[in-house]
Amino acid sequence: MSLAGHTPRITVGYPGLLVSLVLMMLLAPIAEPQGSLRFASSLVFAGLLVFSVWTVSHEARATIIASALALIVFVGSTLMDWLELGHAFGVTILVVACLFFAYVTSLVLRDVFLSKMVSAKTIMGAICAYILLGMLWGYLYSLVNALQPGAFSDDVDETGLIGHFVYFSMVTLTTLGYGDITPVSAAARGLAVVEATLGQVYLTVLVARLVGIHLTQDGRQ
Question: What's the rounded mean pLDDT across residues 136-158?
Fold first, then answer.
């Protein structure tokens, strides 16, 4: 079978997913627990969940799993914004959010790795996966802090604003290391080390490989 006839399995939602991810990163660090910015951030988060599910819509089982996780996260997060539902409820939503982002990230990565032809959409998928890794680790940091208050040097609530941890996650993933937030507990430090290493390996191996193949294809054409 000709490679030219290969179509990546899940690429339809990548543009929308990428836009939602960028908007989420911009709004999350500055959104307050209440108010218009928090409402806007919630809307962007809902869009992020929709586009994340859209990217796996060509497989029924994946769609059902992603949709169920997304619905739980969105409803739970919305309720937490306006109601006092307790520590256990917050931890549960964080666990489900981690599962959701881990699941979607794995599907996007699988699509990128299985693509025989590298197109602009495939590269966009690789970028989405990179940002999704940052989102995933942001929720993991928030979960660690909820289970182990004081896991980070900065003073945050037990569940914390997710934007606080998304910011720290992206700084760690890109190895900027501003130093304004530092992991204190062993679990937090372990996650930070894994994320920093993963971020460098990802950029070096996967993205460089995809761009190289893409340039080679253009040269042949």
Answer: 82
Helices (H), 13-161: 14-27, 36-54, 60-82, 87-114, 120-147
Spatial distance between the Cα atoms of 172 and 166, rounded to a whole number of angstroms: 10
Contacting residues for 187 by C-beta, under 8 A, at least 6 apart: 144, 148, 151
The label of the residue with tokens 């109601």 reads 83
Q: Check: CB of residue 76 under 8 Å from CB of residue 93.
A: yes
Closest CA to 166 of 197, 145, 187, 190: 145
pLDDT for position 75: 84
Its pTM stands at: 0.82
Gap between the Cα atoms of 129 and 206, Å rounded: 11
d(CA 79, CA 73): 10
| Amino acid, res. 112 | V
In order of 37, 132, 143, 152, 163, the CA distances from 42 in angstroms are: 9, 17, 19, 25, 12
Cα–Cα distance for residue pair 24/31, rounded to 1 Å:
10
pLDDT tens digits along 153-202: 865 544 446 778 888 899 999 888 787 888 999 999 999 999 999 998 88
Task: Give me the mean pLDDT over the 53-71 stretch.
Answer: 83
Alpha-carbon span 221 to 133, nearest angstrom:
33
Q: Are 143 and 30 in contact (CB under 8 A)?
A: no
Q: Which of 22-26, 67-71, 116-120, 201-205 has the lowest mean pLDDT?
A: 116-120
